[in-house]
C-alpha cells in the first residue's frame, strides 16, 4: 500500500510499504477514506521528536471502512464505517476506566522509554514516534487498529467524511481544552493560536457558555476565520503587546481562563523569542513556551490555564511563582478522544457543530509532502489539509 | 506503571534490608542520563561562550538586544564565564559544583535581559514579564545540578556492591484485577511463558513440581525442575529450582489487594545464582538481558494479558518480535512451536 513516511526534518515521502496485518485478536484493519495533517504532525516534520526513525508512517487523524477484524472483536464488523481516535486505549486499565484514555496503562509497548523521560508512560498513539509505541500512522491506505472494540466510533451513512473526520482528534481537543476551563456564565477566555485546535477551542468555549472569547495569532487569515466563523474577538500579537491589550480588554483583571493552543513551537517576537530559539537550537531546552508563559502571566488570579498545545520535554523559565502565588490551575493532556466523540457526533448530527469550515486544502495522499509544506509555512491561507488515499 | 528495585544481595534476608539502599539499575541509568545531560550543557556553555567572546555583535543580534558598547562588554564577560563553566563541566563530569555555576550563570543572563527590557520599555506588563523571567531559574540546569549532587551522595554506599553471588530482582506492578484472579493465573505455571519473555515452556508435573525451559543466548536453552515451597492462596507463592538446575533460582510473588478496590499490587522477588559463582554485579546479564529490565517488562506484559487478554504490540516496537507475544491462533506463525522441543521434552 501507499503511505506517507517520515524520513527526517522536513522530509516526508509517500512510499510503497507492506499492508498492515492483524497481529492481535482485538485488532481490526481499516481501509482509510480520509485522513488529515495535524499541527502535532508539524512537530515531527520540524524534527522536534528524537524518537522518530526514517520510514515511520505518520498520521493520526483518519477514518474509513473496516475490512478485517480479529477473532476477539465483538462490536465492530467488516463494512462498518468508523472514525479512529488518535490515542490507542485498552479500555480495561484503571486509566481507561476513569475515562483517561490518552494515558492508558497498556497501549504503549515502548513504555520503558517513556518512563525514562516522563516518569510514567502515557498511551500509545498512532504514527507518533517510538516513544509513544511505534505504531504506524494513518496517512496511508490501510491501518491496523488495536483494541478495535474500544476506540473506533461507528458513523451513520448520512454523514460524509468531512463532517466527522475531526472527531478523531482536533474537535475533541478543542472541546476538552474549553471544558478544562470550567467556564462560568459571563467568563472571558483567551486562546493563543488560531490554528485548527484554536478555532475549535473558541467554538467550544462559546458552546460551554463563555461570553467573550479572544483569539490570538499573527496570521491575519487565521484571525479572520476566528472572527467570522467562530465569533471571536482577535488580537494580532505581531502588532499588539498581548498582555497589555488583554489587560485593557478585561479592565486589568485578565481573562478568566486561558488556552495555549500553539504548543512547543510557539513563536516569540523580540528578546524572549530569540532567547528560546537560541536555547532550543543549542539543545538547552527542548520546548519553547512563549505562548504558555504569556498565557500564565495574563490569566486572572485564581484562573485556569488549559494546555492542549503539545510539549515533549523541558521548558525553561517557567513562571511557577505566578502559578503558585496567584492560585492558578493548570490542566492539560493529550485528548481523551473516546470521552467526547459520542457527544460531539450527536452535536454534529443535530447540526449544532459543522467542523468542515476549517478545511482549506483537499489533496491526494500522494501529495502529502506538499500538504505538510503548505500547512507548515502557512502558505495559500492554509488552515487544514485533508488527504484522500 | 511498573516500578523496580533491584539489588545484588550479600546473603542477608532481602526483605529486612531498607528498600532502595542499592538501587542498581536506576542509579546507573540515571548517572548515564545525567552525564549525557551535563555533557550537553558543557558543550553548550563552550559554544555559547566562544560565540559571546568572538562575535558579541552577532549574539546581540540573535538574542535581539542593541549592539552597543556596554552590551558587547557584558556579552564578552558572559562569554568568559560560559567558557570556564563549560570546560569545568566537561573536564569533571561528576562534579556538580560546575553545574551549580551554570545555574548561577543563568540567573546572570536573566538579570541582564531584564535590565535591557526595562531600559527600552516602560510598559508595566513588560517589566512584569522581565521580573518574572528573572525570578525563574533554568529547570534543566537545576535538575542536572540536583541529580548529580544526589548521585555523589549515594556513591559512597555503593562501593561494595560490585561483586556478589546472586542476581536479585525486585519488581512491583499494579494490576486492575483481583488477587484471586491473578493468583489463579500465576499458580498455573504453564501461563508464565505468556508474559515471561525468556521462558519457552513450563510443564506442570504435579501440584508442587514443574519443569521449566528457558532460552539462553546463542540459541541455547537452560532447564530446571522447580518445586513450590510455599503456597498461601491469593496471597503468596514461592518456588525454587531443585538440585541439578542449570541456573539455580527461586522466586516469590505476593498478591496484595490495592487500597480503594483498585485491583492488586503484585510484588515479585527473584534470585538467580548463575553457575560459576561470583557475578560481576554491574555487568550481570541474565539470558543475555538486564535482569531488572527483563522482569519489569515481563510484569508489564502480565498486566496487559490480565487486563486486556493480549500482549500489546506495535509494528515498530521491540515487542513485535517478542517471544512472549500471545499470538492469536489464526495468525499464528511458527512461533508457537518452541524451537527446542526435543531438548525440552527430555526433562530431568
Ligand atoms: N492535546 C492534544 O491532544 C492535541 C491534539 C491536536 C493538536 N495538539 C496541539 O495543539 C497545537 C495546535 O495545533 P494546530 O493543529 O492548531 O496547529 P497549528 O500549527 O496550525 O496552529 C498553531 C498556531 O499557533 C500560532 N502561534 C504560534 N506562536 C504563537 C504565539 N506566541 N502566540 C499566539 N499564537 C501563536 C501559530 O501562528 C499557529 O496559527 C499543537 O501544539 C498541536 O500539537 C494537541
Ligand atoms: Zn493531532
Ligand atoms: Zn487502558
TrEMBL record, chain A:
<dbReference type="InterPro" id="IPR013154">
    <property type="entry name" value="ADH-like_N"/>
</dbReference>
<dbReference type="InterPro" id="IPR002328">
    <property type="entry name" value="ADH_Zn_CS"/>
</dbReference>
<dbReference type="Pfam" id="PF08240">
    <property type="entry name" value="ADH_N"/>
</dbReference>
<feature type="domain" description="Alcohol dehydrogenase-like N-terminal">
    <location>
        <begin position="25"/>
        <end position="153"/>
    </location>
</feature>
<keyword id="KW-0560">Oxidoreductase</keyword>
<dbReference type="InterPro" id="IPR013149">
    <property type="entry name" value="ADH-like_C"/>
</dbReference>
<keyword id="KW-0862">Zinc</keyword>
<dbReference type="InterPro" id="IPR036291">
    <property type="entry name" value="NAD(P)-bd_dom_sf"/>
</dbReference>
<feature type="domain" description="Alcohol dehydrogenase-like C-terminal">
    <location>
        <begin position="196"/>
        <end position="264"/>
    </location>
</feature>
<dbReference type="Pfam" id="PF00107">
    <property type="entry name" value="ADH_zinc_N"/>
</dbReference>
<protein>
    <submittedName>
        <fullName>Threonine dehydrogenase-like Zn-dependent dehydrogenase</fullName>
    </submittedName>
</protein>
<dbReference type="InterPro" id="IPR011032">
    <property type="entry name" value="GroES-like_sf"/>
</dbReference>
<keyword id="KW-0479">Metal-binding</keyword>
<comment type="similarity">
    <text>Belongs to the zinc-containing alcohol dehydrogenase family.</text>
</comment>
UniProtKB/TrEMBL annotation, chain B:
<dbReference type="Pfam" id="PF03364">
    <property type="entry name" value="Polyketide_cyc"/>
</dbReference>
<feature type="compositionally biased region" description="Polar residues">
    <location>
        <begin position="328"/>
        <end position="348"/>
    </location>
</feature>
<feature type="domain" description="Coenzyme Q-binding protein COQ10 START">
    <location>
        <begin position="175"/>
        <end position="289"/>
    </location>
</feature>
<protein>
    <submittedName>
        <fullName>Membrane protein</fullName>
    </submittedName>
</protein>
<dbReference type="InterPro" id="IPR005031">
    <property type="entry name" value="COQ10_START"/>
</dbReference>
<feature type="region of interest" description="Disordered">
    <location>
        <begin position="325"/>
        <end position="348"/>
    </location>
</feature>
<comment type="similarity">
    <text>Belongs to the ribosome association toxin RatA family.</text>
</comment>
<dbReference type="InterPro" id="IPR023393">
    <property type="entry name" value="START-like_dom_sf"/>
</dbReference>
<feature type="region of interest" description="Disordered">
    <location>
        <begin position="1"/>
        <end position="34"/>
    </location>
</feature>
<feature type="compositionally biased region" description="Basic and acidic residues">
    <location>
        <begin position="1"/>
        <end position="26"/>
    </location>
</feature>
<dbReference type="InterPro" id="IPR047137">
    <property type="entry name" value="ORF3"/>
</dbReference>
